[in-house]
Specification:
The chain is an alpha/beta fold. It has 23 helices and 16 strands.
């Protein structure tokens, strides 16, 4: 029996027989061209690009109605990457300059792009490297005449578990014709599109396990624990029996959770809690309504700015924002203004002479600093948001605010945007304005910030990282990333209590919001608005329904006063003890 650990993606447990998925181009041919061969080689590359585009468009049109909404968005992203000059034109430049074959020119460009992605500080954006590689794989296959689609045996067993090096969003289109119990990939992170699709498809999955395909034989028994992020190869009878028991209990719990979709998130002592969703596009709204979310607590807008040579126009932004506002049907929409660094899109940035490569991107020109450095970009986005607010309940939020001076400067830009719309005679609506609290300096001076905004939202992912000086994506130090570190808890307590005291809205939109380990802690600290990945909403709601905020008070005092990180787990365990009871049943 072998046990491997990775990232839990699709929740649940699967027990079945392994099927090894073989894909990719094993070897990329390399050879030089004569001068009279270059034109035909360019034509061969362009033909492969056209074939890839046609395949992706066909896949998008073939998406089944019951597929997760994210699937179409991810395939659209692959199409966008394909049309980007970095993949569609720059390999041709390399081909011409070096007189080499198209496959090798594409590989050289891919290696360059991979290095650029690896240097991106933001984990989510860094994971888009896998999307780029998946598009490149398609092009390479079209160049050498290999099938671009995942090939599954029509006679697969009902308990099949796919074991692959990687799976693309397009691959999952073919899941509809097969009974796939679960899947495992060698690569990928918690924010990769493979992980997101695993959660959306509700297929038990574990990704980023390393070398699973090398250790598993075809049809070998495996267990996929999509809750704990564990893959067990060739389990013994004791382990198999235990996981069969866990699988039965998990299915029973899911049936109970599904009954909570229309139940209001109210604690046992009558405190009303607002459960919001973090989304990236209009494609996420169907799931938001289905699971009963109260609105959108965070709309990330970065993808509208990536992988392009020019900034998006105001009209394009307006159409996207207004479409989402309309589909929310009156539920609130909080739009975070673009949160990028110069390392994330060097092509359209850099006209003012600022170098593209920062020595430390996380501490450089990022977030609101980049917006201030690019005021035309900033005001264009704000005008689009203000115009879209005519169609729904929209709020605007500034990212990575570190000081009151940065906030005041942002508000000046906002007033300028309003003035520009007024001069144009363009209709717009006033919006509530807030800022993200992601930097310790902002957390410690939150009382001064609250005098200038209507609300604040705590971004715990970065707040923890900056407070503890830990990059959670770095395996060498990721074990030091502690959401419940005493220093973090004291900052959270200060932010939440300060906002509540002055009567300003406060929400939390980091991963802590969707992790039930911290739900009762946050409730006890006074948080009443949680914004999370939509797939975590029912689990968090279940904990809320079984919590009494008054009963939490004594334990919360002990946790806030604690300064020893080694005692935190025991204190949290005591706080969460009552969560061991059965799932709340909807009336």
């Amino acid at each position: 029996m072998i046990v491997l650990h990775g990232y839990a993606a699709g929740k649940g447990i699967a027990i079945g027989r392994a099927h090894l998925v073989v894909r990719g181009v094993s070897e990329v041919p390399q050879y030089h061209l004569h001068e009279n061969e270059i034109a035909s080689e360019i034509n061969r590359f362009e033909t492969a690009i056209k074939a890839t585009r046609k395949q992706l468009e066909q896949l998008r049109s073939a998406i089944p109605e019951n597929a997760p909404t994210e699937l179409g968005a991810f395939i659209s992203l692959h199409l966008m990457l394909l049309t980007d000059v970095t993949l569609s034109r720059e390999p041709i430049d390399i081909l011409e300059e070096q007189a080499i074959n198209a496959e090798w020119a594409l590989k050289i460009q891919t290696d360059r792009l991979s290095q650029q992605f690896d240097e991106i500080d933001d984990e989510y954006l860094r994971q888009r490297k896998q999307d780029m590689l998946q598009v490149v794989e398609r092009i390479q296959k079209n160049l050498v005449g290999k099938s671009t689609e995942i090939v599954l045996d029509a006679n697969l067993l009902d308990d099949t578990i796919l074991i692959a090096h990687d799976l693309s969003p397009a691959d999952t289109v073919y899941f509809k014709d097969q009974r796939i119990e679960g899947f495992v990939t060698d690569i990928g992170g918690s924010t990769s599109h493979t992980a997101i699709l695993g959660r959306s498809l509700n297929i038990p999955s574990v990704i980023g396990v390393g070398n699973a395909r090398q250790l598993i034989s075809e049809h070998e028994w495996v267990i996929v624990d999509g809750i704990g992020g564990v893959l067990i190869i060739n389990p013994d009878e004791i382990v198999l029996s235990e996981y069969r028991r866990r699988l039965k209990a998990f299915r029973s719990r899911q049936r109970a959770l599904n009954k909570l979709k229309k139940t209001a998130a109210t604690t046992a002592d009558g405190e009303e809690i607002e459960l919001l969703a973090n989304i990236e596009s209009a494609d996420d709204i169907k799931a938001l309504h289905n699971l009963g979310a109260d609105g959108v607590g965070l709309l990330r807008t970065e993808f509208l700015y990536l992988n392009r040579d020019t900034l998006p126009e105001e009209e394009e932004l307006y159409q996207v924002y207004s479409d989402i506002a309309k589909k929310l049907k009156g539920k609130p929409l909080t739009i975070r203004t673009v949160d990028l660094g110069v390392d994330k899109n060097p092509r359209w940035f850099g006209n003012n002479g600022t170098p593209n490569a920062a020595l430390n991107p996380a501490l450089g020109l990022t977030g609101i600093r980049l917006c201030h450095a690019e005021p035309v970009m900033f005001r264009t986005q704000m005008r689009a948001i203000l115009r879209a607010a005519v169609h729904g309940k929209i709020r605007m939020m500034f990212p990575m605010i570190a000081s009151l001076s940065e906030l005041k400067q942002s508000l000046v830009h906002l007033e300028t945007a309003k003035k520009q719309l007024t001069e144009r005679g363009e209709p717009f609506a006033e919006v509530d304005v807030g800022c993200m609290i992601e930097i310790p300096s902002a957390a410690l001076t939150v009382s001064s910030l609250l005098k200038w905004v209507d609300f604040v939202s705590i971004g715990t992912n970065d707040l923890i990282q900056y407070t503890l000086s830990v990059d959670r994506s770095d395996d060498a130090v990721s074990h030091l990333y502690q959401p419940a570190h005493p220093a973090v808890i004291k900052l959270l307590s200060h932010i939440i209590r300060t906002a509540n005291r002055v009567g300003k809205g406060v929400s939390l939109c980091g991963e802590m919001a969707g992790d039930t380990t911290y739900t009762r802690l946050l409730l006890g600290l006074g948080l009443r608005k949680f914004s999370m990945n939509i797939n975590n909403l029912l689990d968090v709601k279940d904990v809320i329904l079984r919590s009494d905020t008054e009963d939490l008070e004594n334990d919360i005092i002990k946790i806030v006063r604690n300064e020893d990180p080694d005692k935190t787990d025991a204190l949290l365990k005591k706080l969460n003890e009552m969560n061991r009871t059965e799932t709340h049943q909807a009336a």
